[in-house]
Design a protein that fits this description.
Shape: flat
Radius of gyration: 48 Å
Largest sheet: 6 strands, mixed
Length: 591
Amino acid sequence: TTLLSLDGIRGLFDWFRGPVTATLTPIDLLSGVAQTLSKLDNGPWDTRLTYTISQPGTHILAYRSLDTAGNEEITRTSTIRIDPDPPTAPLALDYAPHGWSTANDFSLSWRNPLDLSGIAGAYVRLGTPPQFPGDGEFFTGSGEVHHIRVPAEGQYDVYVWLRDVAGNDDPSTAVLLPHAFWYDGTPPTSFITFDGIKGPGGWFVSPVTVHLSADDSTSGVAAIYHQINSGAWVTDTAFTLREDGVYILRVYAEDVAGNREPVREVQVRVDRQPPVARITGPDAHTFIPDFTVSWTGWDPGGGSGLTTYDVQWRQGLDGVWNDWLSGTTETSADFHGTQGYLYGFRVRARDAAGHVSAYSSPKWVIVDSVTNGDFGALFTGWESGGLLERAVLPVEGPSGRVSNAVRLGTPDYERTVTPINPGCTEPPGCVPVGAAVISQTITVPSLTMGSQPHLSLWYHIFTYDVMYSENRKRYYDTFEVTIVDGDEEYLVLRDGNPTQEYGQLKDLGWKFATIDLRRFAGHTITIRLSNYNRWDNLLNTWTFVDDVEVRSWGKSPHCYLPLVGGGGTSPPVQTESISHPAPLRPEGDIR
């Protein structure tokens, strides 16, 4: 193994800045070194162990050794770079930006002079000439450097000289750029004064003359700009606001360097109009008798601002208005109503100038007689019974949105023409004979409140069976709505598969039903919703039900209104029906 050591003035990036002495030291711990061969650049192989290299440039030293046993080392090479001379002055030196700059960020550009190791960057000194090599801040770059900063605002002389890759620099080559960097990073400050007669709360009660001025200690003020409301920006320094109203005055100053102060905004106001208020909530329908009423108000034109509200309520369309909240600063409150009642709310507002608005148009809210008609609280408020399963679960409703609905019956039995339940060993199958029933007792709103109560609901039937068998002259699987009033029961809706086709699943889709309850106005009734599987254990049926509501007025149906009729102890209260295709008579089978 042959070791190489290099001695000399080391520069940067493996360059030497003067002559270099290269010394070769062969080592062999076994048979001993027999011979060392070396050569410099393109010279001949030699047995020299020491070289002194002074010529600037790049040199290649190759070397290898042999031991007395005849083993020869692989030829090694080393690159030796020498650059003893600093670069000359930068050529065509320039700076940017010219003139005032609002950013403390400057650049230099130049053409590089010839240099053996190449130009690594430039030294920059501000204010006074450099006194020795490295007497400045170094910036890396070949032909340009960026992001030079000055210590403070003002104008600066700039001295620039170059350093090469080997690390050589000569401050005597520095080029002066007199008054090159101009920095002003501070925006001016504007001042606004008003002449006019002020009223209460800072409101002007006379025309207002506005005076604008500004100050800047470095580059000087160039202009003062102002805008009134959404008008154009102008440079007047005095103007008068003569009309009543609310003026949004925006002002900023700009200096010669281009600094712009943040826009200052003030209001100059005259209030001559009363405020406006309205009820914003709740929705027109709620299942919960305790609900939140909310309101809002404003002063047209940005007046003196609202101070308090008065809120009133009344029961029914013809009820007397009652004071609820007077002089309140709140914008919402909880109201405790009663199920089945219609309530109206209205509000008025006061502003700081003493104006009082007229009462707003009333907002009407009906508290549904039905509790938990959307099944958001599972079976809360409902009685549940029957042999078939009842469950509340999320389902895609008629609007396409997923929400809770009650399912009467279950799809688990599927078609069940032959037994599928391991508990059933022989036909006729596994579907329980009976019904899934939920019911709720409510008080129907009274007609004396100006109401026209209606029951409405959405339902969705899935069935393998028929609603009515023409062959056997009896009803099979149906979804039914019954109203119980005292000892009387009224079947007000019965629906199912109207054809004589069975054995394949029929999806009858979401249907909407509305039923006039005016006959029961003021009565306490029970609404009963049932899904029936009748007569045998065959051919399953189940029904989803959602949004069961009793409103004080009818909710106009906007889709299929199902078949109503049959099976009750008394005629339906009000019936509407649609025509169905002629039934298909089965060819002598179970239906």
